Every structure is written in structure tokens, then in C-alpha cells.
Amino acid sequence: MKNRNNVNLTIVFNAFMAVLISSSVQSKTVNNLPTILDYYPNCDYQTVGSYTVNEKTINPLTEETTVKLLKKLQNKALNIGADAIIIEQRKIKKYKDNKGYYGSSSNQPSSSIISYEGLLINTCQSSSTAERKAAPFNHLGKPVNKMKAMTISLSTKIVFTPPAKATLHRPTISNNKISLTHGIYGLKMGASYSEVHATLGDHSFAFDLFEDQQVIGYGRSHWLFFQGDKLVKVSTQYPLLSIDTLNKIPLIDFFDDSKWKINGLVGRKASLAEVKELLNIQGELNAKKQLVVKGNNNTMLLSFTSKKSYEGNEYNYSLSDFTVKSNSYKEPNQRTTLPKPQHFDALKLILTTLDQEEEEDGVVWSELSKELGKPIGRITVSAKSYINIYNENLAVLINHAKLNTIYLLEEVFQHKQNNEHWSLGPFSQGKTIAQLSAYLSEDDYLDETEAMINADNYQLSLFFDYDNLGLYEATLKVN
Known about the structure:
With 479 residues, this protein is α+β, with helices and mostly antiparallel strands. It has helices spanning 63-79, 193-200, 243-246, 253-256, 272-279, 340-356, 363-372, 433-436, and strands spanning 35-36, 39-40, 46-57, 84-94, 112-122, 133-134, 177-179, 183-184, 205-210, 213-218, 222-227, 230-235, 261-262, 266-267, 290-294, 298-308, 315-326, 377-382, 385-389, 394-399, 402-408, 423-424, 427-428, 445-446, 450-454, 458-464, 471-478. It is built from 8 helices and 27 strands. The strands form 5 sheets. The chain has a 15-stranded antiparallel sheet with strand order 15-16-17-12-11-10-9-18-19-20-21-27-26-25-24. The model is unreliable at 1-30, 98-107 and 145-159 (pLDDT under 50).
């Protein structure tokens, strides 16, 4: 294990990517100003003109600023005889004075110029509301997310989508028994994903790294394996993920407190002698420190940890983990191909984009997600936040449908499949502080193992190995 100065990445995250088009509620003021439409009419409407309104403010996205600008648009439409408005564009730019400086002075908050561009029209009559094209922005001035819900597409019926609910489903689990015949917590081997969800609730983690096998996790200690939409294996051990990745998964009390009991009799930390006696097992530990119990349809593996006794050279063994799997289960060996170069090419533009403009209600994330493509895994942090995993180094935290943090890790999995390095523009894994000094200024924080770059719209933290000073991890936090 390398000695590093690192920070705990406290993850807060959202996943909300559904289409929301309010076609029946429109924006009319008490003064009967022209309507702001949520859609383009599906009849021959008349275009009267286009008009842009703007405002200089330190709070460009507040409701007060938005209402003020939308009223300006409505008054303009009223003055030129238009009876409806379609908002087609919104821009936010940092304000520069005539000397080229941002903001009014170094002691004052930076100002921005926010503008709305509206298409001013005269509406037409249509009795049909079918297939109406949504406007880019709704009557509240909010962008309409037209993306379909991002999924991890699987070869079976299971489809994992970002949570889109007020709270996650966390049912009370009263059955804590693990057995060969009854499976786990009342779920037998062969149960479908929907049956598992009904019993155990929303999973914490979904993973699709191997062909024809999907894995979901509950907390950090329960891993359920599906093949053909059938539960074929359950284990409290999943050695594929790195410690950094596991630490990003929220704990769930029932699962992570290890409340399970084998046949309702013995639980975690029970001694080897106690386990053998109460479960009537005659066999001995194998080379992997496991007791193997085979049944007609399933096999149970009970794993033990050892500790040398104080009195002599004898070892004491205690139960640490269990695995229950179908006898027909076969370990997959074909990993999904990960387009890492494509992912890192997409990240090259992120710093430039954030340097030029603020993230507008998920616009930056919307564009970046298109370039990154389908994730291979997703950690559900809360009902409104999630982490997508794209390859062996890249994870992205989304909160309230907006880009929150990009993580570039030394390894998402315990054992990388290749030696490709990650990169974020000029910041590449393995480079030293000396090699990156051209991108650091006197205002940036710097010590022997960490550098921090603070910009208007983001904070970039770089972590260097204590031994060889090579860059091994980076965190880009969007402000």
C-alpha cells in the first residue's frame, strides 16, 4: 500500500433524467400578457419576430432574475402584437468591464450577463396535442431535458435506470436467514430481478462488466449475480472493486451490519468449531479457508479468517463471509470492451467548457454524457444523486441532474486489465509536479503531494504519489 495524502471523497449525488413536458399549464400573468409556451404548436403558427432580453447580476439563476427577464419578453411580445412566446435559448456569460476584467472589483462578487432569446409568434388553433415538439425551455424559463433516461443496457430483461423518485425504496427486512434450500432472506436461487427488488428494495450498485452477467449490490457487503434475469449467486465478498470504489457506496444498516444467520443458527465471527457443530458439517477447511456445503441444486461456501493464538502456533478461525450459488452457475470470462480513449478525449473539452461558461441546469452534463456513452456501472447515492462508472479509471458524480464531480482514479477495480493512463487535458496519470508546473500559478495551492487549482466554475485537485511524485488521482469539482 502506498503512503499518500488523500482526501475522503464525500459523495453526494442525484439521478434524475426523465422527460418533463408540461403542455397543459402555461404562463399567463394577471395582466394578461402573452403566453410562454412549453411546446411548438403543431399547426401553422405565424412568426412575428425574435427578441433577446438580458440582465447583469451576481445571481443569474435565481427565480427573481428569471421572472424579471420573462416579463420583459412578454411585454415586448405584447408591444409588437404577438400573443405567444417560445424560449429558444438561454446564455450565461461572465461579465467583463471595458478593461477586460471579470467582475466590478476584486472585493466584489463576480457579475454575469444572463440572456433569454424568445421566438415571438401568433398562435394557431389545433384540436390535436399529439406529437407536439417540446420547446427548449418551458414557461418557467427552465431547460427541458429531452434525453431519454440513461440506462445500463443488459442482455436480459434487467434495465437499471437512475432513480427518479422522492425517496429510495428501503423495506424493513425481517428474515435474516441464509440457507442452501431457501437462499437469502427468503429469496431462492432463480428469483427474478423484480422479485429481488420487491423483497430487498432499491439496490446501491449496478454493474455490467461481463458478457451475460449483471451484478447488483446492497450497501458494501451484499452482491447479487444475475444471468438471464435469474439470481444465480449471492456473496458478501466481491473482490473485483477497489477500496476507493467501495468507499463511494453508501452503507445500508441491515446489509452492512452483517445481521445474517446461516440456517438461523450462526452468524459472522462465529468460531469454526461452533459453525461445524451447529450446522452439522463434517468437512474441513479447503485451501481458501472455506467450508464447502453442496446441495442438490445449490452450493454454500462459508469463508473464515484466521488469527494466531497468543499461547502458541495454533490459529483461531472465525466466520467472515458466505456465498450461495446455483450449481449451474459458471464464472464469466469475457469482459465488456471499454472505450477508454474515447472517454478521455471527451474530457479534454471539459476544462475549456467550464472556463468559458457556467453549467446551465445540466447542459454541460447533458453534452458530456452523450460523448461518454453508456456507463458500465452505477452507484446510487440517494434518490437524487448517482455515480456513473465508465472505465477502469473514470467515475462521474451527478447531483440533481447536473455534473457535480469527475473522479479520475488510479483504479476502479482491484486489478486493471491494461496499462493505459487516464488523462484530463494536460493532466495525465504518472506526470510529476515539475512536468505540470506550467499549468500551475502562484495562486494555486501546492505541497509535496497535492495541488489544487481554483477557477471560477470548478476546483481541480491533483494527488501525487508520496514515493515517486507521479500523479495518480484527480478530482474535478464543479462549483
